[in-house]
Amino acid sequence: MAGIAMLLFAAPASSRVIDGVVALVNGEPVTYSEVRDEVAGGLGMPVGDADVFLREQTDTAAVLRWINELVEAVLVRTELKKKGHAVSEKEIDRTIASIRKANRVDDAQFTELLAKDGLTLPMFRNRIRLQLERGALIRERKFKEVTVTDDEVRDYFRESRERFLVGAEVRVEALFFPLPADAAGEDMAIRARFAARQATGAVRQGRPLSDGLEAARSLFPDVRLVSGEFVPAEDLLPEMQKEIGRLLSGERSEPFSAGEGLYIVRVLERRGGKEREFAEVKASLKEELADRRSEKALVDILVELKKSASIDVRL
Q: Could you tell me the EC number(s) of this protein (predicted)?
């Protein structure tokens, strides 16, 4: 995309040194390098490769989605500063330390784990910062709306009871992006991640996975749509079990890694099994319900912020 490349030479719009402005949010610049880093982290590729990827990108809509994510981050951060609730570096440090402790890894091992997902520590810090900022803004603006009572958790359990069947069989369909295990497959992995993002966009609002297959095939010809008969859920890959455990029949997952590739899976139906006791899942369900309400609250907040913001995207 010639317009993206030309942004490298755009004139500065503020006193700080920048490499090219792709958007202005209430006068605050979003730069080309920030978009490049967002792409690198999202697709798990080196920054240099992300630069080449963006220069060769012909899908304007995809570029605009990455820019929009950064625009929203600026809106959230600016609003928090206004309220005096800016997220500090110490908060980010404590959160990362907690994640390392939960995974029982030291600094070097943690860096290796991030690298497997194509992330550097600075990229991961940015992700944590964004999560903390969004959480802080939701608590400040919509605390009552995301608070969950025990009765609401019990109702949520009743609505989602099929997810908690022990010994059940499940029938699924999935988009499968096979990846080679050797180092030569790094480029394929990058293309697979991007194709999976495109496929996800194509199957929004309950559209069939076959639509995602068509959207992904031009970018990753090896993608396959697979389905089968009922199988015991416990026989599936651990990562697949985890994702399926979050889904009701008819729902689909986001892209995830498992076994020898990437998957987007949809649960078609379940049968059999014995229901778990509410007490066993109450704590995790309460957190999940609060997270879902937080996601909706964030969407509402961003709509409000965008209405009153001055946003100038320069593509």
A: 5.2.1.8
